[in-house]
Design a protein that fits this description.
This protein has about 425 residues and is α/β, with parallel strands linked by helices. The chain has a domain of about 160 residues: Leucine-rich repeat, LRR (right-handed beta-alpha superhelix), CATH 3.80.10. Helices cover about 25% and strands about 25% of the residues. It has eleven helices and 19 strands. The strands form three sheets. The protein has a 15-stranded mixed beta sheet. The protein has a two-stranded parallel ribbon with strand order 5-7. Strands 9-11 form a two-stranded parallel ribbon. Strand 14, helix 9 and strand 15 form a beta-alpha-beta unit. It starts with a helix and ends with a strand.
């Protein structure tokens, strides 16, 4: 045997992974899905039972993809998940079950409840249940047994609350998407979470109203509304500091969802898919700016693409002069060549916010060719606008050629990103 071969054999016998510190091994294992975790048992005798003490278990697309060609995969899926849980010997702090949109996967409420009851005895803190397969009409009731739960994601279920519901006292974050709700269930659930700080919710169908009065610690709300009837939708909103509003439904206006008077404590506000060509929407944004005296950052993304609305004059913005002191950062992004109404809003902001540091304005998409005359008009208007803050920097970005103009009170410069 040559010296080279001896060195090669010695290298094979060295188990460098097993000699790593425990915290490093744990850091590696937490990023593996369940199938990969179980396979580590084949590495060596030392690794045979390492997987069944990992506190995070994830059943997601990688796991379910292996059953794509199986006619009825549900029994086998349920068997594997049950077996993995039963063989686990340690605490389980995080559990994710994310069923992809495959029509032939059906997990009954019986299995959900059995698994979650098991997890409740394992100290579960983070639980994510997403069912985009065959719709399951029942939310697992044993979720309410998970009293140590701090983070909860639920998608694709009918939400109901047991009559003897005592709340989830430790819950900090709640994410609800693509669900339906029994009458009063949503308010009861939220009211039973006194420690709740972050709520991310999508409303579909015909939800009448939501009272969040008892969620006194709620500071971060992300609300997606996909229903037409929204008048008075949010009532008794607590003093939240961060708000993101989003809707993809035509003729659904933000002004009807939350009145400006409920947003006086905001520090961050984002509007997704707002139509700045709607006079009422633009005036609503201005009303919020006048009410939210603590607002520091404003993000606006407009989805107006047609440019068919007739331009209108915003006399309300021109008649009065206001002096606001907190707003520092504004980001406005529009995908339309009709920029006149966005420019009216920018003119108002620049003229009235003395603490403004940065206003970023992006027009157009990468494949949308902008009219050079329109670009020149925008640039000239931005350069001539009156500013309440002499340190305000205006960043105008063309989305079509990725050019940014930086406009300061003393002059301007432009930057172009080169891609290869």
């Amino acid at each position: 045997m040559t010296l080279t071969n001896k060195k090669a054999n010695c290298a094979v016998d060295i188990d460098r992974i097993s000699d790593l510190p425990c915290n490093v091994i744990d850091g590696i294992l937490k990023h593996l899905n369940v199938e990969e975790l179980v396979c580590t048992s084949l590495l060596s005798r030392k690794w045979r039972y390492v997987w069944n003490t990992v506190p995070q278990l994830v059943f997601s697309e990688n796991f379910f993809s292996r059953f794509e060609d199986v006619d009825d995969p549900s029994p086998e899926i349920c068997r594997i998940i049950s077996e993995v849980l039963l063989q686990h010997n340690g605490s389980i702090y995080s559990f994710t079950l994310d069923i992809p949109p495959v029509s032939n996967i059906l997990i009954t409420a019986e299995y959900y409840n059995k698994w979650i009851l098991f997890l409740s005895r394992k100290g579960i803190k983070e639980l994510a249940l997403s069912n985009y397969g065959i719709f399951c009409d029942k939310m697992p009731s044993h979720v309410f047994s998970c009293q140590e739960l701090t983070h909860f994601w639920l998608s694709g279920f009918n939400v109901s609350v047991l009559p003897n519901f005592c709340g989830l006292k430790n819950l900090l974050e709640l994410h609800l998407h693509n669900n339906t709700y029994e009458f009063g269930a949503l308010e009861t659930l939220i009211s039973g979470c006194p420690s709740l700080k972050e709520l991310n919710i999508e409303l579909v169908g015909d939800m009448k109203s939501i009272c969040l009065k008892k969620a006194k610690n709620l500071i971060d709300l992300r609300l997606t509304v996909n229903q037409k009837s929204v008048s008075g939708l949010i009532k008794s909103l607590p003093n939240i500091q961060r708000l993101t509003l989003e809707t993809y439904c035509d003729k659904t206006f933000y002004a009807d969802i939350i009145p400006p008077s409920q947003l006086i404590s905001l520090k961050y506000l984002k509007f997704n898919c707002v139509n700045l060509d709607e006079r009422g929407e633009l005036l609503y944004i201005v009303s919020v700016l006048k009410s939210a005296s603590n607002l520091v950052e404003l993000d606006i993304e407009s989805d107006t693409l047609d440019g068919e609305h007739e331009p209108y004059q915003l006399e309300e913005l021109e008649r009065n002069s206001y002096c606001f002191s907190q707003l520092q950062t504004v980001n406005i992004s529009i995908g339309t060549v009709d920029f006149k109404h966005a420019m009216s809003l920018i003119r108002f902001i620049l003229a009235n916010f003395s603490s403004l540091k940065t206003l970023a304005f992006k027009v157009g998409f990468p494949r949308e060719k902008l009219d050079p005359t329109a670009v020149l008009s925008i640039f000239q208007d931005l350069l001539s606008m009156k500013r309440a803050s002499q340190r305000a920097c205006v960043e105008f970005t063309r989305g079509d050629i990725d050019v940014q103009y930086v406009i300061l009170p003393s002059g301007f410069e432009y930057k172009q990103k080169l891609t290869f």
